[in-house]
Amino acid sequence: MTLSPRFTLTAGALAVLCLAAVIHILVVLTIPRNVQHSAYDDALTYGPDRQFNLLPDVRPGAEALPGLDPAMKHAICRFQLSAGPVFFDAGIPASFWSIGVFNQAGETVYSLNNRTAGADRLSMLLITSEQLSILRQNPPANLEDLIVIETETISGIALLRAYVSHPTQAETIENAMSIASCDVLG
């Protein structure tokens, strides 16, 4: 018994389509694991670790990082808690500012703004559980004035954002962000 050429051609085409669909699905599912591009890696291109580095203004098609608000100024800081607790300090002269702390995978660890902080100045300490235990043995004098965030994230980025309500404020806000601190507590 021989198969008709039409049936053989149809069966072959279906087999190729099924194989192509399986390969396509496998490639799509493995993309997140194989992508080496992340905001943590991108932050290094804007300046050294453990200091806030200003990001360029948001322009359509030329965003420094995805999802940035064009009405705000942005500064980014890479940190590693293995070197010690990280102290964030900034006095931003804006009606609204916020800071987001993200792990290397880009997941939010903590977020704070001037309204939830109840202060115009950012004074925050990011620390691991082990470091907090050591710090409690010999606390700094201003510990009660700090917002202390305990985390298991060792490496990550902090994104400082400030709303620019009028273009005349832009330079003042940029200056304040450029002197903001993101360094090891010491």
Rg (CA only): 24 Å
User: Which spans have pLDDT < 50 for at least 5 consecutive residues?
Assistant: none
Major sheet: order of its strands?
1-2-8-4-5
- The number of E-state strands comes to 9
Write down the overall mean pLDDT. 86
What does this structure look like?
- Helix content is 31%, strand content 29%.
- It is built from five helices and nine strands; from the N terminus they run ααβββββαβαββαβ.
- It has helices at 5-34, 39-43, 114-117, 129-137, 170-178, and strands spanning 53-54, 72-80, 86-91, 97-103, 108-113, 121-127, 147-150, 155-163, 181-184.
- The strands form two sheets. Strands 1-2-8-4-5 form a five-stranded antiparallel beta sheet.
Keywords:
9 strands; four-stranded mixed sheet; alpha+beta; five-stranded antiparallel sheet; 186 residues
List the helices and strands and how they pair.
Layout lengths: L4 H30 L4 H5 L9 E2 L17 E9 L5 E6 L5 E7 L4 E6 H4 L3 E7 L1 H9 L9 E4 L4 E9 L6 H9 L2 E4 L2
Parallel strand pairs: 6-7
Antiparallel strand pairs: 1-2, 2-8, 3-6, 3-9, 4-5, 4-8
Quick overview:
This protein is α+β, with helices and mostly antiparallel strands. It contains five helices and nine strands, in the order H-H-E-E-E-E-E-H-E-H-E-E-H-E.
